[in-house]
Amino acid sequence: MPEQYGVILFPSVHFALRAEKRAKDEGFKIKLIPVPRHLSSDCGVCLRFPWEQKEIFLCLLEREGIRMEGIYLLE
Predict the structure, then answer these.
(1) Nearest 10 degrees: CA dihedral of 58, 12, 34, 55?
(2) Whole-prediction pTM value?
(3) What φ, ψ does residue 50 adopt, rounded to 5°?
């Protein structure tokens, strides 16, 4: 089964960059990508991450006080 990925949308690029830095510091395999058009018409970036790490990744964001707008499974 191929690996599933999720994306997290943030209210600003500032939050996306903070999340990227903290996630990389913690060893997560993440990547900043353009927001998929079916999720938002806004230009911007989101963070792609392995879906199986969703819970621990969300705990990291909460602990760091990083706001997000939504979390989605990429199909």
Answers:
(1) 0
(2) 0.86
(3) -65, 125
CB 51 within 8 A of CB 5: yes
Domains and CATH numbers, the chain: 5-73 (3.30.70)
Looking at this protein, which amino acid is placed at residue 67? Answer: R
Total residues found in the chain within this entry = 75
Per residue in 22-56, pLDDT tens?
999 999 999 999 988 888 767 689 999 999 999 99
**DSSP tag of 12:** S
Model confidence at 16: pLDDT above 80: yes
Other C-beta atoms within 10 Å of 26: how many? 12
Residue matched to tokens 């879906």: 51
SS3 content of the chain, % helix, strand, coil (to 5): 35, 25, 40
